[in-house]
Amino acid sequence: MNESYSLVDFYCNQNGHGHCQKEIRRGGSFDVTCLLVEMPAYRKSVPAVGDFSVGMGLSTNVPARWNYGEKWINHKLAQPGSTVVTPCNLAVDFDVGGDHLLLLCTCPEVKVVALCESYAEGSYRKLMQLTSFSFIYDHVLRTSMQRIWHVTKEYGFSSDLLIDGLWMTIIGRLLELVNIKPKPSRHKLSSVHIKTIGDYVEENYHQSINTATLAGLVGMSVSRFAKEFRQSTSKTPYQFVLEKRIEKAQLFLCQKSAKLCDVAYRCGFASQTHLSDIFREKLGTTPKQYQKEIAI
User: Fold this and answer.
1) What is the chain's mean pLDDT, rounded?
2) 57 forms bridges with which residues in the sheet?
3) Axis crossing angle, helix 222-233 with helix 160-177, rounded to the nearest 10
């Protein structure tokens, strides 16, 4: 097993699927890599690698089967949202009988282990049970996977916190599917910790902020920090930072002379379009309309 070789490498090199149309995106503190690839029918052995992958088919009525080393799982017709999990260090044979579009999200083993163990002790080993599943069809998995893909393109560095939250949602949901319940938290962030985070965000809301940076401020691992922060504030780190950016944007928009593109840049949004999307989603209006109604 080559730990430096990933499934993304396999799907991109000339010996695997180098001829296929593909796009790769990366982001977040968990080093998540996403690959969207258009593929013809194929039968290949995927090598054991050092990353954990969640693959989701986006095409209709595609015959598929796979073998993790014990037996072939009989042909199933894959539909949009059909999901297969491939744990680290496990080779798998795939036999796919038609053209199809695949969305693959991968994460290094060490990151997934830490995330699982912060959820419940020994839970990472339980993920092996997913190899006995046929296709997994789950709304949470599908929407989270597709959301990760879109935000990595649209929002640039502003997407890091959101990618972290979505990847934690995916792993948490997979653990729920094998009946793992989260362990109760014995530690919560103190008021001093919360103030430290708040002060940092106040000073740096216009810059790239990721979960690893915030976790480092209070001496916690990324996975533990994200969990403790949500329990202490009822918000994810992404939501916390986003609220600050919206607040600052509202202040700048109180000025008639403020240009929307400048406001977006000064408040840490990836673009004017990103700012507009967030205003519509969170405030039910556009930045331009908000400025028109409130500016003096």
Assistant:
1) 86
2) 102
3) 90
